[in-house]
Specification:
InterPro entries: N-acetyl_sugar_amidoTrfase, Rossmann-like_a/b/a_fold. The chain is mainly alpha-helical. It is built from 16 helices and five strands. The strands form two sheets. The protein has a three-stranded parallel sheet. A two-stranded parallel ribbon has the order 4-5. α5 runs parallel beside α16. The model has no long low-confidence stretch (mean pLDDT 97).
Length: 395
C-alpha cells in the first residue's frame, strides 16, 4: 500500500489524498494549523462566544462527555480558563470500562459540574450493532450517532444553545480542513458521522421490529427546533491548538485522570481510547478492512509533532498491529455471530488495494480488567439469523 511520505498513514485511510510530493492531506492540514492560524485571535473569538451566552440560561454551555481524554480536556479547559457553568452530557454506548467510570466520578467531583448520562435500550443497541456491521463493517453506528445527536436533544430540552465538542475532524481526517469553518451540525452528521445511514433507514432495515420511538436518540433534532434555540455547536479545537499528548498530561496531573491499557496499542499511549472495551474489536475490523489500525494513527500523530521518527514508528506498527483481540469473543456473543461469519462480513468491506491473510493472524493478550467487562445480554442466534439472512439477500 502507498503511505504518506511524511507520516505513516496509508492510502486506505478514509478521506485521505496525497500531493505531488506524496504528503497526505492530514499532514498538510496540521501544517496549516501550526503555521497559518492566528490562535491568539481564535482564543479571543472563543471568549466572545462564551460571553455572548454566559448567564443567560440555566447553563452557559453543554459539554458532550465520554470520560476520555478529549472530552475531559474540553470540560477542564472551559471551566478553568473561562469559569463556565456547564451541563455535562454522556451517551453511554454500553461498553464503558471500570477505570473510565472511576475517572468520570473523579473528574466531575473535582471540577464540580452537573451531569446527565443516558443509557439506551440494550435490545435496540444489539440490533443496530449487528445491522451496521453487516452493512458497513462498522458496528459502532449507535455510538457514532448517539454521541452526536443525544446532546443536541438535551440542548433543546434544557434550552442551552451553546455546545462545545473536542477536537475538529481536520485533526485526523480530510472531510474538513483547518482553513474551513467546521460546525458540528446536521450537515457534518450526515457527511460522515452516521456512515450514510439515517435512523429512518435503520428502522426500515429492521423491518418494523422496533418502536419508532426507539430511534429518537440516534436521530438529529429537527433544524427548525435548533434554529429556534439559536444554537451554536462548535469544536473547542477550532479555537485553541489541539495536542492530545500535552493535554492528557495536564488532566492526569491536575485531575488525577488515569490512563489505561488498550488492546494491541503500545503502552506509552495509555491515554488513547481507554473508554470502551470493544475498542480492540473496532481497531481489528479496521485492520481487516484497511490494513492498518491505531498504532499507525498514533505514530503518525507523533511524527507530525516531531516526537517520533519514521523508522521507530514502523517498528511499533510491526509489533502491535494486526493481532486478534481477546475481546472478539465478547463481541461475537453480543451480536450472535460465529468467528467465521465475522471474518466473512468484515472482509466484504475491504478497501482496495489491501487484502488480509486471515490465516496469519496472531492472538493479542487479554487486558488486566478483561474479566470485569460486561458479558450479559447475549443476542439469541435466531434473532441474528433474521438480520444475517436479509443482509445476504441484499448482496
Amino acid at each position: 500500500m502507498k503511505r504518506c511520505t511524511k507520516c505513516l498513514l496509508p492510502e486506505t485511510h478514509e478521506s485521505i489524498s496525497f500531493d505531488e510530493m506524496g504528503v497526505c492531506s492530514i499532514c498538510r492540514q496540521v501544517e496549516f494549523k501550526e503555521g497559518k492560524i492566528d490562535w491568539e485571535s481564535r482564543k479571543k473569538d472563543l471568549s466572545e462566544l462564551i460571553e455572548m451566552h454566559r448567564g443567560k440560561y440555566d447553563y452557559d454551555c453543554i459539554v458532550p462527555f465520554s470520560g476520555g481524554k478529549d472530552s475531559v480536556w474540553t470540560l477542564y479547559y472551559l471551566m478553568k480558563e473561562f469559569k463556565v457553568k456547564p451541563l455535562v452530557v454522556r451517551f453511554d454506548h454500553g461498553f464503558l470500562r471500570p477505570n473510565l467510570n472511576e475517572n468520570t466520578i473523579n473528574v466531575l467531583r473535582g471540577l464540580g459540574a452537573d451531569f446527565i448520562s443516558f443509557t439506551p435500550n440494550w435490545k435496540v443497541v444489539q440490533k443496530l450493532m449487528l445491522q451496521s456491521f453487516l452493512e458497513k463493517g462498522d458496528f459502532c453506528w449507535h455510538c457514532h450517532t448517539g454521541i452526536f445527536s443525544y446532546p443536541m436533544h438535551i440542548a433543546i430540552k434544557y434550552k442551552v444553545p451553546l455546545i462545545f465538542w473536542g477536537e475538529p475532524s481536520a485533526e485526523y481526517t480530510s472531510y474538513y480542513s483547518y482553513d474551513q469553518p467546521e460546525e458540528v451540525d446536521e450537515k457534518r452528521f450526515n457527511r460522515f458521522v452516521n456512515l450514510g445511514i439515517t435512523a429512518l433507514d435503520m428502522a426500515v432495515r429492521l423491518g418494523g421490529d422496533l418502536d419508532e420511538r426507539d430511534f429518537k436518540p440516534y436521530t438529529y433534532p429537527p433544524l427548525k427546533e435548533l434554529r429556534a434555540l439559536n444554537y451554536k455547536s462548535v469544536c473547542l479545537g477550532s479555537y485553541i491548538p489541539w495536542d492530545v499528548k500535552t493535554q492528557s498530561k495536564i488532566i492526569m496531573d491536575e485531575l488525577g485522570w488515569k490512563g489505561d491499557l488498550v488492546e494491541n496499542v503500545p503502552p506509552q499511549y495509555n491515554y488513547e481510547k481507554i473508554e470502551c472495551h470493544m475498542q480492540g474489536v473496532r481497531d481489528y475490523i479496521k485492520y481487516i478492512k484497511r490494513g492498518y489500525t491505531r498504532p499507525t494513527a498514533l505514530a503518525s500523530i507523533d511524527i507530525r509533532h516531531g516526537r517520533l521518527d519514521r523508522e521507530d514508528g514502523e517498528k511499533m506498527i510491526d509489533e502491535f498491529e494486526g493481532k486478534k483481540p481477546a475481546s472478539l469473543e465478547i463481541f461475537l456473543e453480543m451480536v450472535g455471530l460465529t468467528e467465521a461469519e465475522f471474518f466473512e462480513i468484515a472482509q466484504s468491506h475491504t478497501v482496495s488495494p489491501w487484502k488480509l491473510n486471515v490465516f496469519e493472524q496472531e492472538a493479542g493478550a487479554k487486558l488486566p480488567d478483561f474479566n470485569q467487562w460486561t458479558r450479559s445480554g447475549k443476542m439469541d442466534r435466531s434473532e441474528a439469523d433474521v438480520q444475517i439472512e436479509n443482509w445476504r439477500k441484499s448482496q
